[in-house]
C-alpha cells in the first residue's frame, strides 16, 4: 500500500504521524511511504531521516494526498484536507467526530474510509488514545499551575503551598487515563487533589495507588458543587468513547469557584465536560468566563511534539501495519479490533455514538464493508 504522511496544518501543531523508524517498518513490510517535505521538522526529524528509512519526500500536501492510498495524520482533517480526501482513500488519525458535525458530514461526503485512533478499543481500553491522554493529563496540571499565577490573571496560588500555608485544591472530573496522570502530577507537586468518578471499582483502585494527598469522591451533582467552592484548578477529564462528553459543570456553577481559579478541559476534543468550554489554540489558549480562566486547547500534546510523536507512533504503528496489509475491507471483516476504529466507510457513517450525537443514520462497519 502507498502510505502518505502530510504536514499537520492545525494551528501550531508540530507533531507528525510517523517517526522515521515507523517509516522504515512500513517500508520493510513492502509498503511505499510518502512524506511531505518538512513534515517532521517540528518533532526534530529532517527529510533526510525519512529518506534514509526508505521513504520518498514529496514537495507539498496536494502531491501526498493525490498519490497515497492511506493517509496517516495526527489531528482531524482541516477544511482544505477534507477537500483533498477522495472516495476509497483510507485516513487514519484522531477524528473526534462527535464534537464536529461539519467534519463528520464532510468526511462522509468525501467517500473516504475514516479509521479513528480514539475509538480503536481492546476490552475497555483505548490503546491509541492512551499516550496522548497521558501527555494531556500531565500537561493539564503544568498549564493550570502557570495560569494560576497572578501575571497570567490567576488568583496567585502555588500548587504546593508552603509550610504554614495550605496548598491549592485541584479537582479532577474523571478517573481514567487523563485524570490519573493529572492526579499524579498534581499530587507530586504537593496539591490537595480530589478525583471524581462514577465507577466505584475505579475509585477503589485509585484509593489504593494514589498518595495520601489524593482523595476520591463518587460523582453526584451535589458533590461536584460542594467541591467547586474550594477548587483552585478544575480539570475536565471525562471520556465516553466516540461520543460527546457530558456537561458536568454549568456556567452558573462557575460562580461558586474563587475568582481567578483555572479550568483546563481536556475533554474539549469531545465537546468538553464544562458548559463554557470552547476549543482554543496554542497561540491564544485562554479566555475568561465568570472570573474563571479557561484553558481549552484542543491539541495540548502538540506543545511537546517530540515526546508526543514518539509516544503516538509507538502506539499506532502495529495497527498502521495491520491496516496497510489488510486494507479497509478486510480490516473490518477479519479484525474485530480494527473494526472498532472504523467511523465512516464509503460514504456511510459506521459509528453509533457519532450518529447519536447528530441524529444521523448509520450502519455497522461490517454491513458497509461487505459492499466495498
CATH superfamily of the largest domain: NAD(P)-binding Rossmann-like Domain
CATH classification, class level of the largest domain: Alpha Beta
3D shape: globular
Over all CA atoms, what is the radius of gyration?
A: 21 Å
Q: Main beta sheet, described?
A: 8 strands, mixed
CATH topology of the largest domain: Rossmann fold
Can you describe what's shown?
The chain has 372 residues and is an alpha/beta fold. The chain folds into 2 domains: 2-120 and 304-369, NAD(P)-binding Rossmann-like Domain (Rossmann fold, 3-Layer(aba) Sandwich); 130-193 and 227-300, Rossmann fold (3-Layer(aba) Sandwich). It contains 14 helices and 15 strands. The chain has an 8-stranded mixed beta sheet with strand order 3-2-1-4-5-6-14-15, sandwiched between helices. It has a 7-stranded mixed beta sheet with strand order 9-8-7-10-11-13-12, with helices on both faces. Helix 6 (130-147) runs antiparallel to helix 11. The protein is globular, with a radius of gyration of 21 Å. The two termini are 17 Å apart. 52% of the residues are buried.
